Amino acid sequence: MRYCLFGRSGLRVSELCLGTMNFGNADWGIDDATSRAVMDAYAGAGGNFLDTAHIYGNGESERIVGEFIAADRDHFVVATKYTPSHGADIMRAGNSRRNMMRSVEESLSRLGTDYIDLFYLHMWDFTTPLDEVMRGFEDLVRSGKVLYVAASDMPAWQISRGNMLADLRGWSPFIGIQVEYSLAQRTPERDLLPMAAELDLGVVAWAPLAGGALAGGSGPRNRVRAARSSPRVQAIADLVRELAAENGLPGSQVALAALRQLGRHPNVLPIIGASSVDQLQANIGCLDVRLDDAQMARLETASQVDLGFPHEFLASPTIAQLVTGGNAHRFDNHRAPFGKGRA
């Protein structure tokens, strides 16, 4: 695996992130031994970026990850998250400073470490003042318990507002975002990915296989595939399967390779999950796959989304002529807002 810098930071991460949501999950997850084997295989392939969360497996995922990294803590970049709770206690959920501080202490204990490399706000709650969140993150960074902060499942305008607050007040900004992004879910291209490019934020893509819908097959997460199923998604999945057959590849490799080639942001980092070592190795194989222009054009056409207002309006030839005083044909307004080598 190759490595890149994560957003506007010096944090070095591998080009595929390992998701651990299924570690220790009693409903559809994998046990300790299989989880360890998957992490061993991932690390053996050069992976160093592990993604977990306070809520995964009711804390079991963090425990399993913590036991694995104990032998070489400094080598791994551990990302975890706070916000939601499976319980019925309203005080144990949300974006508040109170829940943030409690969650960090519990995560540190389960992970068996003194610090968290990357700490996400997991889901925006629409109630907590943003300055409370950003100040809480700053205090955690100053304490050394958290090294970097990021945002997951949060509106673009709130993320950009949070980073403006951080810049103005000298606080730690978000260095990256985590979004649902796949051939079946390209709506982040409307605002989240352009914002990430402009602000130099790393982008981590969860559900890059649409819950397995783009990989085919069967397994314990069939209900997740069904939840993401629609005629449009099925058509995209059928095309992925067709291209996979043409290239003699697993569907997962085609879908992951295509996501990495879309080009809407440099070095989008897919989160790959696995229920076995064989499945993990198949997913890692996407790094050796390069789809040709004709194949990418077919996937682009099948999966494209309407960018909506104001993006479609501003991209129209009429508006282009108006904003250039009739000189659109003489003016190149395509900037390159992001640097090479960043995620």
UniProtKB/TrEMBL annotation:
Gene3D superfamilies: NADP-dependent oxidoreductase domain. The keyword Secreted does not apply. It holds the Pfam family Aldo_ket_red. Keywords: Oxidoreductase. SUPFAM superfamilies: NAD(P)-linked oxidoreductase (SSF51430). InterPro entries: AKR_Detox_Biosynth, NAD(P)_OxRdtase_dom_sf, NADP_OxRdtase_dom. Residues 15-302 form the NADP-dependent oxidoreductase domain. It comes from the Bacteria. This is Aldo/keto reductase. It comes from Sphingobium cyanobacteriorum.
